[in-house]
Amino acid sequence: MPAVKTPTARVGHGVMLTHPDRVYWPDAGITKARLADYYKAAWPRMAPFIIDRPLALLRCPEGIEGPRFFQKNAWKGMNAHIVALDDPQGAPRGHLIGIHDLDGLMGLVQGAALEIHPWQASCHDWERPDQLVMDLDPGEGVGWADVIAAARAVRARLEASGLAAFVKTSGGKGLHVIAPLEPVADWAGAKSFAHALAQDMAADSPDRFVTTVSRARRHGRILLDYLRNQRGATSVAPYSARARPGAPISMPVSWAELDALTGPAQFTVGNAMERLASQRADPWADFHAARRPIGTRAP
Length: 299
Hints:
By secondary structure, this protein is an alpha+beta fold. 25% of the residues lie in helices and 18% in strands. The protein starts with 22 loop residues before the first strand and ends in a 21-residue tail after the last helix.
């Protein structure tokens, strides 16, 4: 069985931020420097989820009201602390992007990366994912309480299959349920498992869930997006900011606090540092110790 490598953070801050007062979120008054300060506070918890992984970035050089684009490959002039990764299968458009330390994260901030989306696998083991993501994306007419109930239903399915389940706000419209995996199954195995789980839930509750992205079929239902679990696909990182009004955060939460949440964008760059400072315990403290292989039991 392959050894599971949990990256450790090398804390440092040797990146000079140019134009630190540049406003990235005008409606919330969040600047480049404020985003950097938040990430420095979140780094000890965020690091294992973004270190040594291929990353896709949503870059907004002029903030959320200006042009934006996804960046999956190394670019000319990127900060020296951002690492160019060699995909063993060969990236069609050049090197992929990764970071090794806090300076790398500061380099992403300097490069106006307002969202960070990692693969579900480490670059130490490209072909075996070490987490499984179920993205719960509510259609029109779906209430927040229904999204919470859906997350609990996914948790029950995962636990029935022998996997642990953790939950975070998306910072967008829904919730993400994440299962930490021992990196044993390949991409095809992980995707097949996630697909079967989603299909079974949709078959059992067709009035609540759908597995196709067609908007016409999603009204009043929740899309169970299992496609994050294939090679090259990404999902927003725990603690990543989102390039949306209000500067929301994709925030890890405990299952016990779900009912107290007001919505998927409750936590923001503006209030997240207070949450981190006041929390007695990390709600995802057991994530890495909870890794299990995908079993043979049906979801």
